[in-house]
Write a structure and sequence with these properties.
Helix content: 40-55%
Keywords: Cell wall biogenesis/degradation, Hydrolase, Membrane, Transmembrane, Transmembrane helix
EC number: 3.5.1.28
Enzyme class: hydrolase
CATH class of the largest domain: Alpha Beta
Strand order of the largest sheet: 2-5-4-6-3-7
Structural class: alpha/beta
Radius of gyration: 38 Å
GO biological process, one term: cell wall organization
Catalytic activity: Hydrolyzes the link between N-acetylmuramoyl residues and L-amino acid residues in certain cell-wall glycopeptides
Length: 250
């Protein structure tokens, strides 16, 4: 049976509609693929840029480290007398100090006494047993230094930090607690040497006050600028008299 013109037209129209739909479907599929590829390429490029930036930054940091001033250490210790306390439970327990993480500065709080007198007091505690007290080093008013306890043993000076610090007691001439110039200079030299010996920084040098809040050493607690100046003097001394890190330290 022969179809009418109207039927033929409708059939053609259906085919055109179907073709348009097919073309639209293909375009959408192509657009999705294009966007996915574009996003992937963008992500990979961004990742590459980040990696390159990080590599350049790491290289710059390494170069800065290489050209920076070498760390210095004071090789020569100041002169000091070694007068070790008798091993006893009140002032020299003989307990091993496994690692030195800091240096604690103290003052004797008994004006006018000498380093030898303070050392004798620590020794007397073995007999009196009146308290637990001692220090690795004592610096006198004239700048003399006495070592009372080996640096690989603990002293009874810094409370919770006894187990990982070296203590330095400083004698004072009067109630102000201010050190004499001789005491101060010996303190700088001793602490600077100990910093190098145990690879410590100025931040590892603290006051007894920083451990317990005790007013010790009095002058450095009451005059924070003097404590800051002391830290600066340590670094200046190390820079002036130190040797480079690559050299051997005795």
């Amino acid at each position: 049976m022969q179809r009418s013109d109207e039927e033929i037209y409708e059939e053609q129209e259906r085919r055109r509609i179907k073709a348009r739909r097919e073309r639209r479907r293909k375009r959408r599929k192509q657009q999705i693929i294009f966007r996915a590829v574009t996003f992937t390429v963008f992500f990979l490029v961004l990742l590459l840029i980040v990696m390159l930036v990080r590599k350049v930054a790491d290289k710059s940091a390494a170069e800065e480290t290489m050209v920076s001033e070498p760390v210095k250490y004071v090789e020569k210790s100041p002169d000091f007398a070694v007068e070790l306390l008798t091993v006893n439970e009140y002032s020299r327990p003989g307990t091993e100090l496994a690692q030195v993480n800091g240096i604690v500065v103290h003052y004797t709080a008994n004006p006018g006494t000498t380093a030898e007198q303070n050392r004798s007091y620590f020794e007397s505690l073995a007999e009196t047993g009146e308290t637990h007290a001692s220090s690795h080093f004592i610096i006198g008013i004239s700048g003399e230094i006495i070592q009372c306890i080996p640096c690989n043993e603990i002293s009874y000076a810094s409370n919770d930090r006894n187990s990982d610090t070296i203590s330095v007691e400083c004698c004072i001439p009067d109630e102000s607690g201010k050190f004499t110039d001789e005491t101060y200079q010996s303190l700088v030299e001793l602490v600077a040497w100990l910093m190098g010996r145990y690879e410590l920084t100025a931040d590892d040098v603290i006051r007894h006050y920083d451990v317990t809040g005790k007013d010790c050493p009095k002058y450095f607690v009451e005059n924070s600028n003097a404590w800051s100046d002391f830290k600066t003097d340590l670094l200046t001394y190390i820079d002036t008299y130190g040797i480079e890190k690559t050299q051997e330290i005795n």
